[in-house]
């Protein structure tokens, strides 16, 4: 377990490092593309969000949401990502929407730092942002 402290500037810096951000988003896309066809289907996007349990819990407490309501929520998320309304999400659409989401997180954090406890093997964008910031600080500190 590790503890990281980040604020909006840390997250924004991660997005602005186009090479690192693109690499991270592309890796996440590849992991979500279960059938390796180069696009994300509605079910692949839903499985990704179900695994995060964002819609079934509130501050770590399970919330009972009717299945039809969950389906509507997952469908609306998919439609937000599927900007060309092709019925699937390609890599460019995924990159674009993830950038918007992560920048919205940065804006929400602003200059107020938050402390996060993360598993060392946890792989998420906020941890990657903190790791990138730490590596920059280490480089500055090195002679």
Task: Give the gist of this structure.
By secondary structure, the chain is α+β, with helices and mostly antiparallel strands.
Describe the structure.
The protein is α+β, with helices and mostly antiparallel strands. Helix content is 60%, strand content 13%. The chain is built from six helices and six strands, in the order E-H-H-E-H-E-E-H-E-H-E-H. The chain has helices spanning 8-16, 18-32, 42-52, 67-81, 91-109, 125-141; strands spanning 2-6, 39-40, 57-58, 61-62, 89-90, 114-118. It has a two-stranded antiparallel ribbon with strand order 1-6. It has a two-stranded antiparallel ribbon with strand order 2-5. A hairpin with a 2-residue loop joins strand 3 (57-58) and strand 4 (61-62). Helix 1 (8-16) packs antiparallel against helix 5 (91-109) and helix 2 (18-32) packs across helix 5. The longest helix has 19 residues, at 91-109. It is globular, with a radius of gyration of 17 Å. The mean pLDDT is 87. It holds the Pfam family EF-hand_7.
């Amino acid at each position: 377990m590790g503890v990281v402290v980040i604020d909006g500037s840390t997250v924004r810096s991660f997005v602005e490092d186009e090479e690192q951000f693109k690499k991270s988003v592309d890796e996440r896309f590849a992991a979500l593309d279960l059938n390796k066809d180069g696009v994300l289907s509605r079910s692949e996007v839903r499985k990704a969000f179900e695994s995060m349990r964002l819609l079934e819990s509130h501050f770590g407490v399970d919330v009972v949401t009717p299945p039809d309501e969950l389906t509507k929520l997952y469908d609306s998320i998919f439609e937000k990502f599927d900007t060309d309304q092709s019925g699937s999400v390609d890599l460019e659409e995924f990159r674009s929407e993830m950038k918007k989401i992560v920048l919205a997180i940065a804006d929400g954090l602003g200059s107020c730092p938050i402390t996060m406890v993360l598993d060392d093997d946890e792989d998420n964008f906020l941890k990657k942002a903190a790791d990138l910031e730490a590596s920059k600080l280490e480089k500055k500190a090195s002679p």
